[in-house]
# Entry
Amino acid sequence: MPTRKRRRQRAQRPPRPARADSTRAASITAPGAGGLLAERSGPPGAQPADAAITQIPEAARRAMLDGGIHAACLPVRLGDARDGSDPASWQAAMFVQVAGVEGARHRQMLRARAGRPLVIDIECDLIETEQGSVVLLLARIHTGPGEPLQARMLLTPGAGGDHLEALQLLARQPLLSWFFAADDFSIVHSQCHPMAEALRAAFVEILADSARHDALMREQGSLDPSAALDSVIRHYSLAQSPD
# Structure
């Protein structure tokens, strides 16, 4: 049975405009639920993201379509001369497709809030299985009155590649960018917010804990990130779309 390590932290920071210029191969993420750490990003200061980013990038679209999922965390090339960031640097960004009839209310509110910040609660769990570690990310996006939009993702750092790189970036990058899209993957809202030092430190701890667990599973000959991912989805009966 998977075991969960839980910690919780919360902070509030104003969002800033997001800009993404290109992407690498997509992270293979899946819906999840979490409670390990939490950060809240909130009110004023947001501006529209770079107008060049009008759709979820192809790599993220492939991950969503191939996995039947609606949210992905993956490395992207981010830069904005206005904040002095390096346009060649890679950062982990969140892409959320708000699809279907069930997402209509949230899509409408996202469009109505274009250029204005959303409050987003971020939580994360590290889940240890007999096949390896799985990191669960949960975002609650407060689009307006009523229940928030939820976006869930799973990352398997033991698989290496973009899963591991995304977590490594989350452990050191100063900003976290969000892009929200409609059924056709066209962006309806985007923003970014500073990441608190405590949040980055928590991701450092997640990486260390997952590395130790995956090393042990590797020594025992049972490390299988794909099987770990499947076991978490089965155990927690995770939904296949945002709430």
About this structure: The chain is about 25% helix and 30% strand. Residues 7-38, 42-48 have pLDDT under 50 and may be disordered.
